[in-house]
Design brief:
- With 252 residues, the chain is mostly beta strands.
- It has one domain (3-251).
- Helices cover 6% and strands 31% of the residues.
- It has two helices and 21 strands.
- The chain has helices at 3-12, 150-155, and strands at 17-18, 21-22, 25-29, 33-38, 63-68, 73-78, 85-87, 92-93, 96-101, 109-110, 118-120, 135-137, 143-145, 160-163, 169-171, 181-183, 204-206, 218-221, 224-228, 240-242, 249-251.
- Strands 8-7-14-15-19-18 form a six-stranded mixed sheet, with no helix packed on it. A four-stranded antiparallel sheet has the order 3-4-5-21, with helices on one face. A three-stranded antiparallel sheet has the order 10-9-11, with no helix packed on it.
- Strand 9 and strand 10 (109-110) form a beta hairpin.
């Protein structure tokens, strides 16, 4: 395990008070897996939940995220995970939404995926009731990040911010690690039509070499593969080059 793991162990053991909730988290390790457990509360203040755009209230959780001690590259790339990583304090990274374009839906969205246009959370984060940490609460009461949190970043003493389901580290180095995803040119071929402006996931495409990172927001650092969080789309890794633990996120 890298030196970053031991830094993480020290950091998550320090309780930090959030609004009406205290982050409680711990790291455990066996011969194969490292696990970060938490009550789901962040180590910084949360926004007000419920709010006008989000009817859900925060509830403490019993969360456990387990990933391989020694990540191994896979022959296939894993996609389609809702939880794409975990912070050192046990709060999940969940960049996707459950909303899709639906002309008959509330505010033009519903959970019906038939349009093929999935709502992109960070285009209008306040529309989803996010707080100023790019996070909000889902219907189960789970607080989760859609983008990097400035307060969480300020609490860390390293570029390491979390781990992916395949065990590779997730770092934040905005000056050096830049996304290779870009808005498409032109207009959407089907409803809701209009220019590609970032409202939907499908408004973006990967253009190799346009940034420093690969399609999974990853790259090599001193010969070691790592993922990165970025200030632009996709914000967190959305696909995984290593062998993923299928039970990465569990709830007790």
């Amino acid at each position: 395990m890298s030196r970053h793991f031991f830094t993480a162990l020290l950091l998550v053991s320090l309780p930090v008070t959030a609004t009406a909730h205290e982050n409680v988290s711990k790291v455990t390790q066996n011969s194969d897996l490292t696990c970060i457990s938490s009550n789901g509360a962040p180590n910084h203040d949360m926004g007000t939940f419920p709010n006008r755009a989000n009817p859900n209230g925060f509830r403490e959780q019993a969360l456990k995220f387990c990933f391989p001690n020694e990540p191994q590259k896979s022959n296939t790339v894993t996609t389609g995970l809702m939880t794409v990583g975990v912070s050192l304090t046990g709060v999940p990274f969940r960049p996707f939404t459950a909303g899709y374009y639906d002309a008959n839906g509330r505010r033009g969205f519903s959970h019906d995926p038939s349009s093929g246009w999935r709502q992109q959370a960070m285009h209008e984060p306040r529309r989803l009731g996010m707080d100023d940490q790019n996070a909000h609460v889902d219907k189960s009461g789970l607080y989760h990040y859609h983008g990097v949190s400035s307060d969480y970043l300020a609490s860390q003493k390293d570029t390491l911010i979390g781990y992916a389901p395949d065990g590779y580290e997730i770092h934040y180095i905005p000056s050096a690690a830049t996304s290779s995803w870009r808005l498409k040119a032109g207009t959407r071929p089907t409803d809701p039509l209009g220019a590609y402006d970032g409202t939907f996931e499908e408004d973006f495409e990967y253009k190799a070499g346009s940034g420093t990172l690969d399609e999974c927001n990853g790259g090599l650092v001193d010969g070691e593969y790592r993922y990165f969080a970025t200030d632009s789309y996709p914000y967190f890794p959305r696909c995984f080059k290593g062998v993923v633990n299928p039970q990465f996120m569990t709830r007790g």
